[in-house]
Amino acid sequence: MRCGRRVSTTVNAPVQKRHFRGAAPWPGPATMQRETVKPAPDRGTPKSIACRVLALALLIGAAIPVWSEPADTSGAVRRGYVSVDTRQIHYRFAAPAAGLRSQPPLVLFHLSPNSSQVFDRVMPLLAADRVVLAPDTPGYGMSDPLPDPQRIEDYAAVLNRALATLVDAHRLDAVGYHTGAGIALEIERQQPRRWRRLALVAVPVLTAEERARGAAIPMIPFDEDGAWAQAEWQRSWRWRGPGQDRESVLATYAAKMRPGARERGAEAILAYDSAAALAEARAELLIVRVRDDLWEATGRAHTLRPDALFRELPDYGHGLFHAAPALMNSLLREFFDAEPGERPATPADRHEDQ
Question: Pairing mode, if any, of strands 172-177 and 195-201?
Fold first, then answer.
C-alpha cells in the first residue's frame, strides 16, 4: 500500500549505535539517503486513514529501544549508563559469550558511601557463565542523585526501572552488601516475581540504639581547615578489613569525599525497616556474616530467618570483595548455582564427608 509520493533526498543525519537496550546512543555524523513521504491529499478515505495509523505505529515503534543481548566482554568489566526519567544511572557489567550464559543474570548492590567499584575484582569471576551487572546507587559513583529525603524505597524503584531496561530475563539473582542488602530486599519486595535468589552480605537489621548512634555521626564539614580529610582517612584506615589493601581503602575514602555522600546513604538505611523486609522476602536467601560493624546486626538477620542458608566469615571484614574475590566467587556460586530445591552443604556437612 502506497501512502503518498516518495521523494529521494540527501540529508545529514546522525547514526546511532547501541550496545544493548537502554544504553545511551553515540551520535556520529554521516550522510545517507533517506526517502520522505508526502502525504496524499485524500485524508478522509479508508486508505489514507490506514496510512496514518501505520505512520503512528512506526513512530511509536521508533521511540522504543530494541533489546539486544549484552555484548561479550570475555569477563572484563565494562561501564555504561541508562536513563531513568531525567537521571542517568551508571553501572558496571561483565558478560561471557552468549553460548556460555547458563545461569540467570546477577545484579550486585554496593554499600554506601561507595560505588560498584567494590565488586570490580569479583565480577570477572562471576561472569564466566552469566551476565553480571553492578549499578551505582543514585547519588553514588557516577549515578545522578535523588532529591531529599533519601529513602531505600526510592533507590529500589529507580534501580528496578533501570534494570527493566538493561536485563530482559524474567528471573534474576542479586547480591546486596551492607546498604545494598537493604536495597536488594526492597527491590525484591517491589517486584517479588522477578527475583529468584538473594545473597545478603552484612545485613543491617538495626536496633533503635544503633540507629540513634548512626544518626549522631557528624557531617563532614568540608571547610578550609582540611582537618576533616585527615580524620576521614584515619577512619577509613581504622575500619579496613583483613586483607583489604591500600588501593581498596583509597577507593572507599574517595567515595566519601563528595559532599553529602556519607550522610545520604546513612539517612536512607537508618530510616528503613530491614527486619520487616527480610521477614517478607519470598526469594531464596543466603545470609553472610563478616567481622565488621554489622556483625551483631547480621546475627539478628539469621535469627529472624533461620530458613536462610547461613555462612560466617569471621576472618574477613570491610573490603571483603576486594580482599577475597576467589572466596566470594566460590561461596556465591555454591548458592546461586544449586539446582532448585537443592540446599548447598554446610561446612559441618563437608567436614563429615571427609
Answer: parallel
Which CATH code is given to the segment(s) 78-340?
Answer: 3.40.50.1820
* Per-domain residue ranges of the chain: 4-63, 78-340
- Note the pLDDT tens digit of each residue in 252-268: 899 888 888 888 999 99
Predicted confidence (pLDDT) per residue in 168-204, tens digit: 888 999 999 999 999 999 999 999 999 999 999 999 9
Please name which of 286, 293, 287 lies closest in space to residue 318, comparing C-alpha atoms: 293
- Whether the link from the prior residue into 113 is cis, omega within 30° of 0, is yes
Instruction: Note the pLDDT of residue 2.
Output: 54
On whether the CB atoms of residues 200 and 185 are closer than 8 A, the answer is yes
Distances (CA, A) of 76 to 115, 232, 305, 310, 327: 18, 32, 36, 30, 19
Is the whole model's pTM more than 0.85, yes or no? no
pLDDT of residue 344: 61
C-alpha cell of residue 278: 527480610
Q: According to the model, what pLDDT value does residue 352 have?
A: 40
Asked if residue 317 lies in contact with residue 291, where contact means CB atoms within 8 angstroms, the answer is yes
